[in-house]
Structure formats: structure tokens, C-alpha cells
Amino acid sequence: MNTIPQLRKGLCLLTIGLLAYPQLAAAATTEEELAELKATAAEMQKTIQLMNARIQDLEKKNAAMASSKPAPAPARASQPAAPKQSTPQLANKTEDLDLYQRSPSYLSLETIADGGELGHKSPVRYRHTMNDRQIAASRPEDYTLDPKYRGFIPVPNTPVLIKFNAKPRLDFTYDNNLAGSNTRFVPSKFPLEGSADYGGNGQANLNANGTQLSVDVRAPERPGNVRFYYQNDFFGDENANMRYRLQHLYGQYYGLKVGFTYSAWENPDVWPDTVDYEGPNSVIFARRPLVQYTHAFNECWNSTIGMEQPDFYVDAPKKLARMPDFAVNTRWENENFGHVQLSGIIRDIGARDVNGDDFHELGWGINLGTNINLTECDSLQFLGVYGEGIGGMGNDTSFLNSDAGFTADGDLEALAYWSVMAGLTHRWSDRFRSTVTYGYAHLDPASGQDEQFYNFSHYASANLIWQIKPRWSLGAEGLYGYKEAQNGDSSDDHFRFQLGMVYSLFD
Hints:
A hairpin with a 6-residue loop joins β7 (212-219) and β8. This protein has a 20-stranded antiparallel sheet that branches. The longest helix has 38 residues, at 31-68. The two termini are 85 Å apart. Residues 75-84 have low confidence and may be disordered. The protein has a single domain (120-503), classed as Porin (Beta Barrel). Helix content is 17%, strand content 39%. The radius of gyration is 44 Å and the shape is elongated. It has five helices and 24 strands. It is of the alpha+beta class. α1 runs antiparallel to α3. This is Porin. Residues 62-97 are annotated as: Disordered. Residues 1-27 form the signal peptide. Keywords: Signal. InterPro entries: DcaP (IPR045748).
């Protein structure tokens, strides 16, 4: 059945055809063609009349049908939609979010975001050295090196902040001769002239053993300066790659510290900024199981006393200890000047000889360490050490039986030890800095020890460190070392060139 639009379309086409008739008639060339065109035009006119009549008829029918339909019902006013019922799951998620945002650790971060600080900034200047020893050290009361707690994340529904950090490191070294260790620069390990391991010409090595992993847990807005700290590197075996070694694992509450970390005899704030991961021969390296207590007298003065594992090295078949080591230090800290620390230690050193006889000697020592802020760009580090029976805590002599030995008469003797270290750091710009370091360590062996036993060593280094990014460093360093034995034999001069790169996920 034809609809009105279809009929109107056909009518339009027929009308166009009629309008074209005069042009077609003018183009006719014979009487027959003209007669045929006239007949066609007459048929088209008749068809147009019929189509007009049909259109009028359909329009009348449509009008009649529209008038017979009932009027549409008035539109109802729209009703407001019923409120959605929150599901239990959605309600629980909202409550959890509210609880998280009200948790103490979240509020601690809000304090920092608003421009505040948590606790107090330590008067000790954080030097951002390439081989950082400062972060792991505990501080009295609520003092911290970074009151902005960069890199820490909140533990939901607790007052605890936690930071997971990784410091991938790679070192390339080139030595003029065999160094006794491919991965470390330790003068006490240098082969003596004439020994089978001496010489060797150039030696190159790559290692990543200085890579560190750490976890730092704090509750800065709770009384007691609660802290848990863990750190390891991969120097568990200096002749192999990536062997686990624990460096720190301790807990701190108020002034009490328990675990494995720096002895009160050591001063971690005086280590110079060397590319060499091992560090100078003459610094104190003493990390052991311990319990310590630190008391702050005021913002400048504090003291620490510790009872520590008696870890000593004796040239004897068996070592004995009747008491733990007792160490104490007192520090003066000033934001502008720097700090000074005086430390002391007493210990019982015991040994059993080949005949089964037991011997004991008193070990003791003192050391004075300081870091002085000469200018905004320059700092000086100094350490002086003296004592008897303390060589095992020297960075160089800790690889030897250097605390005590037997004399030619068969008596046990605590070995006299002294050392000195000085370092100077200059910052050329925000990106570049240099440090020069010198160290000397001296040990007086017992008369019964081997004549080629260690007597003294020298250490020197100079470097240029490029701080590529705030947490990414590249350093180049030249090192010099020398060792002499009790009988005068020496290692001769030893040189090393080192390139080191380290990246830290967080400051």
C-alpha cells in the first residue's frame, strides 16, 4: 500500500518530466516523434491528476483516524528516585578508609605534608657520603638525621612508619700488583716482597658486593623514639660474589638498644667519604651483639655505655673470656661546629696455650674522633686511637690475631696498638665533591710471633665524586697502600684505581 510520502515523491518526478516537455518537443525532428511526445505528455497529466486525488483521499482518512483516538492521559509528575541502599561491602570499605586516615601513622605523614617535622633534627650534619655509615647509627631521644622521614610509608592502623631501601652498587678496580683481596683494599693483606703471591702485574676486577638492603621502622610520635633497624651487604666471603653479610639488626626504645650494631667504642660519624668500600686502615670497625644505654644530658651532650660480645683475636689455639667488653663514650654535638666523641673500652683477653695453660690479660683503649664543619663546603674528619689488646677492632688489623700474642718466654701479652686518620672533604658544587684521606696503623707484635707478622701500614686516597642525581653517585678514586712486617720486609708500594657507582631508592 502506497503511503502519502511515496505518492508525493512520484508526483514530483512526473511534474519534472512535464517541465522538460518543451525542450523535448523542440528537439523532435519528425512529425511522428512530435505526435509520440504529445501522447506521452497527455498520459503523464492524467497520472498526475489520479495521484493528486489519491493523496487527498489518504489525507482525509488519516484525519478521521486521529480524531477517533482518546486523548492521552496527563503526564504524571516525576517521583524522586528512591535512595540507593549501600551494600555492606561498600560500607566496610568506607569505614576502613576512614580508619586508615585516622590512624596515627597517616596523621604523622599529614604533619609532614603540612610543612611540619617529626622529632628534632640531629645537630650532627648528615654528609651523604658514598658509603653511608651515619643512617644506621642510633641517635639520642627523638633526634634524627631526617625529620621529614623521606621514603617512609605508613603502616595502617598503627603509629609505625617503615622504609624499605635498596642500594645497588658496582665497583671496578685495577691494581698494579696482587692485593691479597680482589674486592677489598686492605694493606694488612698485601703480599710481602719475596712471597709466592707477590707481584702479578696489573689486576682488574668487578664486584657488586657493596650492594645493601635495609629496613627502617620508626614510631616518631610515640614516646621512647621507637626504632627497629636492619641492614646487610654481600661481603660474607671476600673471595666470592654476593655472599650475605649482616651489618645491623637492632631495636631501640628510649635510650635502650639491643641487638647487633656499632660498638660504643666506634664512631660512625667520622668515616671519610671514600669510594673505597672498605675505608681507611686506621678507623675503628667494631660491630657485635650488645646492649647499650644512651642518656642525653641536653641537646648538645650525651653518653652511651654498652655491654658487648668479647670478640677478640689471639694468636693461640683457644681464646677465653671471663667477662663481656664494656665500652663507653661521651659526645658533644653542635649544629654549626660538628661533634667530638671520646670513647673508652676495657676487656678481658684470655687464651689457652698448647700445653693447656690458661692466661688472661687486661685490654683497654681510648679514642678521640671528630667531624668539624669548617665551612658550608668543607669538613674535616679526624680519629686518634691508642690502647692495648684492641688491634682486633682496627679496620686493617681486624684480619689478624692482633689483640694478644705469646712472648718468647711463653707469656700472653696484650699487643699495643695505635692509629691516626684524617680526611678532608670539599664540595666544588652541588654535583661534585672530593675527599682526600690518610691513615696510619701501628701494632707492636709479641716477641713470640712470626717475624713477618704485621708491624704498620699506610693508607691514602683521593677522589672525585659526581652526584648525578640526589640518590645516584659515580666516583673515581686513586688509592695508595703500604705494609711493613716486624722484620722489615714490606709489600712495596701498592696502587689501585677504582670506579664506583651506587644508587639508593630513597635518601
